[in-house]
Amino acid sequence: YSHLSNNFQSFISSISTITEPHSYAEAVKYDCWKKVMQAELEALTLNNTWTVTSLPPNKHVIGCRWIYKIKYHADGNIERYKARLVAKGYTQMEGLDYIATFS
To answer: What is the mean pLDDT of residues 33-38?
Structure first.
């Protein structure tokens, strides 16, 4: 271990002690993840990403989930924590949730 550069030792230490949560339940145990989730929700609200409305009859809710990432500087130190709220678009049903798709 001592033959490795200080930067690489720092990188190895950081990735071995800090992990990315795999679920919301894991993430809310840590203030750093709670802060970035709150920031993501605020950004989505400021960007008018959605409008809260009543669910029309015969429609189902498309769920969402959080994705967590730790971003690192080149020297291996943590740059920032990142949380993204993503829709579970794969749960949509053709003809019910959408009619046609275009690319």
So the answer is: 97
Whether residue 28 is contained in a domain is answered as: yes
Q: Is the CB of residue 71 less than 8 Å from the CB of residue 77? A: no
- The arithmetic mean of pLDDT across residues 58-66, rounded, is 85
Which of 26, 34, 31, 19 has its CA nearest to residue 78? Answer: 19
The answer to the question of residue 38 being in a domain is: yes
Asked whether residue 99 is domain-assigned, the answer is no
DSSP helix/strand/coil, 45: helix
Query: How far apart are alpha carbons 71 and 85 in whole angstroms?
Result: 17
- Read off the pLDDT band of 91 (50, 70, 90): low
User: What's the number of domains the chain is made of?
Assistant: 1
**CA-to-CA distance for 98 and 44, rounded, in angstroms?**
23
Q: What is residue 32's three-state secondary structure?
A: helix
Residue 65 inside a domain? The answer is yes
Q: How far apart are CA 83 and CA 29, in angstroms?
A: 14
Average pLDDT estimate for 50-74: 87
